[in-house]
Amino acid sequence: MARDDGGGGAQRGERGGGAARPPGRRCGGGAGMTATADVDIALAVLRRGRDTVTPALRAAVARLDRASREQAAYHLGWIELDGTPGHGGGKAVRPALALLSAAAAGAPVQAGLPGAVAVELVHNFSLLHDDLMDGDTERRHRRTVWAHWGAPAAILTGDALLALAVEVLLEGGSPHAAPAARLLAATTRELIRGQAEDVAFERRSDVGVEECLSMAAGKTASLLATSAAIGSVLAGAPVGLTATLQTYGTELGMAFQLVDDLLGIWGDPAVTGKPVLSDLRSRKKSLPVTYAVHHGGTAGRELARWLAGAGEDGEAQLRRAAALVEDGGGRDWAAAEARRRIALGEKALAGADLPDGPRAELVALGRYLVDREF
Amino acid sequence: MARDDGGGGAQRGERGGGAARPPGRRCGGGAGMTATADVDIALAVLRRGRDTVTPALRAAVARLDRASREQAAYHLGWIELDGTPGHGGGKAVRPALALLSAAAAGAPVQAGLPGAVAVELVHNFSLLHDDLMDGDTERRHRRTVWAHWGAPAAILTGDALLALAVEVLLEGGSPHAAPAARLLAATTRELIRGQAEDVAFERRSDVGVEECLSMAAGKTASLLATSAAIGSVLAGAPVGLTATLQTYGTELGMAFQLVDDLLGIWGDPAVTGKPVLSDLRSRKKSLPVTYAVHHGGTAGRELARWLAGAGEDGEAQLRRAAALVEDGGGRDWAAAEARRRIALGEKALAGADLPDGPRAELVALGRYLVDREF
Fold it and tell me: Region (Disordered): which ranges (chains A, B) (predicted)?
């Protein structure tokens, strides 16, 4: 399953902040780390991001050829297959980060707008191609583009979104557009490296924790890092500030992936939108699984044998596999590592010279994203 | 079959220029238009282009992730599947045009180098994805990347080449790199539009000549137009000169496609590297076929009925179909239209303010490319 940040995140948060969750069943900055005030800030940042970026994103997509335009509008949740209006897209985390990063450089959030549109386009380019490569026929309970229109449609619409991202960024009029586009292109190659490794891992039985972390750095953290910095590049910020924002985005991205992997095993299907124990069903070599295989003693060895097997598992077998990941220390390690990563990111921000408002918003958004229920 | 300019072109030309071919069996500027001197100029321009661009292209590809790097090196003809050295790549028409366009703006050809590398990368991005979409298992008698490594490999390596093209262009250091990258991104979307139409045409029986020309403009002419202009953009040429070079590249591209379609029916398999009557075997709605269907009277109607059929044809049926395209005027029209297009391009160049050397080289290269045997 290709990386995504879900469509119902804002709603989930709005349902009750973090306060009602049992302690010890959250993986962000620790139980109770995300105060209600942080949740409110994060939701406001996400709402502002969506409100700011959506008109520009729609204008950009409107310039695509007819087929790509229709498929992109469906993929982005703006229309349904029968042409009726859709229920909207995802949380738009990356655009929100891009806008915040302009504010972090002391510029108006609008200065980050071309970057915000561009990172969202690149994110969706990768989702369209990944769904096809992974053979996923559904995303958020809707048919994927390749499953409905065929493989060429997903390939071409993805390609078109990638090219459009570069155009949008360079048209923005910033004198710093060229370095921003160069950063985005290099990030795209990192994204591709991560996906290539993910595909290769499926055929291998000897994937190590370091390799798995490197894959996540490419597939998930690289675009979040660039999202958290591209607005500062467009605003002409000093390289030191941009590097700090990239560090924050990288750590946030790694924490986000660790949490996502925990949710892939122990997430509530009603919340994640995926079947229960979904990552185990596909024998995915996720981070907690890989950790338990290599550091989990007897439980890890039994887990490795199960992982090397084939065929469909029953509910009992999947529950047994989940218990092995837990007994092998994979669950605790991933939760602790997510906390450690987000703390590292926050430490980098704390030491940097940026206005207090954007700093607090970046921290609140990061905590909100990694403090999901699982 | 995705657009390509073949690997043996230079060798073909070197075999004897145009002098030995029977008159009336050439589609360029008319029989005898390409003098031996023109052929020599064109071959020297192509050789210089390859010599200049190859080291930079190799350095760019070396930066890709391991899997993409290996697949790209194989696709580009630098290595074989067993790791032994390959027999080299294609003619590198697009890089040669890009370098010439810098010279046309009065700059050193080196000023066009980042553009030359970038257009070659975009061209090969499109070939990798098109081979997969078209289901072609061979290109120039070699297995295609998707056929050997699987669909994800072709998707990801293509994606990586597209991102790399943007990086290379923006790293070149030209103060005009941003508009050049913007032009390349817009061109990529045109390329995608053309391929999307090509895919859609396969399922339709009512494709008109204008639609077919528009498809060719996207799929073939757009990148040749940008190749013939991008060096001038990087050199900071006046917009008028860049527009003229784009016009020349567009007309050259249309002529090139018309000739390619003629070769797809009447080309010598020993020269084209494709089976005899190959485009008819796949019932391709190429330009001469589409013209004959719509303007070919009785022959056109019989051709349309054959086109709507299915199943594999014998040699006799294919020869009959080729005769119907000819009787329906498709062959003569395509040859005349190719001549008209290249003449239009040359007229645009003749009226523009550029140095005589690059102008003569552009004309010679164009004539050489459309004056192929068929």
Answer: 1-32
- Local structure of residue A85 (DSSP, 8 states): B
Inter-residue contact A175 to B175 (CB < 8 Å): no
Question: Which site among A66, A119, A127, A182 would you substitute to test the B interface, given the most B Cβ atoms closer than 10 Å to its Cβ?
Answer: A182
Among chain A residues, CA nearest to B67: A196
Please report, for the domain that includes residue B276, its CATH number. Answer: 1.10.600.10
Q: Which of A185, A195, A196 sits opposite B167 (nearest CB)?
A: A185
CA atoms within 13 Å, Cβ hemisphere of B85: 2
Asked if B352 reaches chain A (Cβ–Cβ under 8 Å), the answer is: no
Which residues form the domain of A48? 28-364
Instruction: Give this complex's ipTM.
Output: 0.91
- Assess contact for B289 and B303: CB atoms under 8 A: yes
In this structure, are residues B188 and A165 in contact, taking their beta carbons and an 8 Å threshold?
no
Q: Give, as one character, the DSSP assignment of residue A275.
A: -
Token pair recorded at residue A41 = 């800030």
Q: Looking at CA atoms only, how far is residue B124 from chain A in angstroms?
A: 13
Nearest-angstrom CA–CA distance, B154 and A257: 26
Question: Residue type at B58?
Answer: R
- Strands A142-143 and B142-143 come out as unpaired
- Whether B152 has its CB under 8 Å from any CB of chain A: the answer is yes
In a domain, B373, yes or no: no
Task: Establish if A1 belongs to a structural domain.
Answer: no
- Closest in B133, B152, B189 to A163, CB measured: B189
| b/e B70-107 (16+ beta carbons within 10 angstroms → b) | bbbbbbbbbeeeeeeebeebbbbbbbbbbbbbbbbbeb
Interface touch B185/A164, C-beta < 8 Å: yes
Whether residue A65 and residue B196 make contact (CB cut-off 8 A), yes or no, is: yes
- Say if the Cβ atoms of A160 and B192 lie within 8 Å: yes
Give the pair of three-digit tokens for residue B36: 């031996």
Number of domains forming the structure of chain A: 1
B177 part of contact set with chain A, CB < 8 Å: yes
Rounded to 5 degrees, what are φ and ψ at B87?
Answer: -95, 20
Does any domain span residue A247? yes
Instruction: Answer yes or no: do A163 and B162 touch at CB < 8 A.
Output: yes
**What does the block give as tokens for A10?**
């804002």
pLDDT in tens, chain B (374 residues): 445 554 443 333 333 333 333 334 444 334 445 678 889 999 999 999 999 999 999 999 999 999 999 999 999 999 999 989 998 888 899 999 999 999 999 999 999 999 999 999 999 999 999 999 999 999 888 999 999 999 999 999 999 999 999 999 999 888 999 999 999 999 999 999 999 999 999 888 889 999 999 999 999 999 999 999 999 999 999 999 999 999 999 999 999 999 999 999 998 887 777 777 888 988 999 999 999 999 999 999 999 999 998 888 889 999 999 999 999 999 999 999 999 999 999 999 999 999 999 999 999 999 999 987 54
Q: What are phi and psi of A162, to 5 degrees?
A: -65, -45
In total, the C-beta contacts within 8 angstroms joining chain A to chain B are 123
| Cross-chain residue pair A156–B68, CB shorter than 8 Å | no
- Name which of B41, B221, B266, B223 is nearest B119 in CA terms: B223
CA neighbor of A241 nearest in space, from A123, A359, A344: A359
Please check whether residue B161 lies inside any domain of the structure.
yes
Residue A26 is given by DSSP the state B
**Residue A310: count of CB within 10 angstroms of its CB:** 6
CB contact under 8 A, A151 and B151: yes
